[in-house]
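Lab notebook, bench 4. The sequencing result for the construct came back, and we need a structural model before the next group meeting so we can plan mutations. Quick request posted to the team channel:

Model the 3D structure of this chain.
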Amino acid sequence: MITRRHLAGLAAGAALLPTALRAQAWTARRTETFAEGFPAAGRRPWAEQVPQLRVGLLGGENEADRMGRFGAYRDLLEATFGVPTRLFPASDYAGVQQAFGAKQIEVAGMGASAYAGAWLDTNGGVEPLLTAEEADGSISYVAVMITRADTGITSLEQMRGRSLAWADPNSTSGYLIPRFALRRQGIGVESGQYFSRTGFGGGHEQAVVAVLQRQYDAAVTWASGQGDVIQGYTRGNLRAMVDKGMLNMRDMRIIWTSEPIVNGPHTARTDLPAAFKEDWKRFHLALPKAHAEIYRQVERGSGTGYREVRHQDYELIVEIRREEAAARRRRS
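Done. Here's the predicted structure in token form:
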């Protein structure tokens, strides 16, 4: 359950970043100080237990673009570790969670809520390895609510009676945290309460496209919250859409921004060899300096690289997820 201490922290603007992260109670390795260089190519002993590497890709972007962004990354993984590597693009976030439960994939980059869902679904059968750092070295991003500039909507208050698109029910920034934060502001998040209607866009990119096509008045999505808003910030869904020519931020307006949210982790099954998990960390800690363009494509923008994380860093997201599930059961 979300405690009074957590709610007090949220009011102070700190609860979405766990205490463990803010206090930096352990020394996590980071790209900026990682001096070991990129791993040498060659088959590892763990390949006896992991004869192929299956990498899950979250939904939220059209499949052709996802496969294009990750193509060189897949090739580099295969060349470095000497095992066949396959990409498994899911149509939505739940697909990756289910693939972990069925042991159909070894690893995936996930949002914090998707990780929490997979951890709950597998009874702790997955673990976080590392996460992306932003341009300022932090490991947090924000959820934003975006609308077209020509709607005349300039604030959250003006969204009363308007329509809102969530991204995906397993998205942190596109569902879980906006609902949590808006409820704490006294705003009813169910369709027909504060908003005239709500629905799912089918992913972050699709939700913004639905706003562009006037199917919804606004949508929630993710952004680094850093850099030039006209460029879609330094990293995130908006930046990716700007870079692909799908979005002109001058035509859009951001009317609400969440408190900082911990970045989602690269997630692995807990039953995999420890040596494999260590190699995965080393590969990614060195990736931004050794293969900058591959890193930029995978992360939809740029930052300072990666940092190790632990399950403790996502415990609050797990609790919020539990609360959301309990509320859903009560409604049904």
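Confidence is low (pLDDT under 50) at residues 1-15, 19-24.
Will bring this to the meeting.
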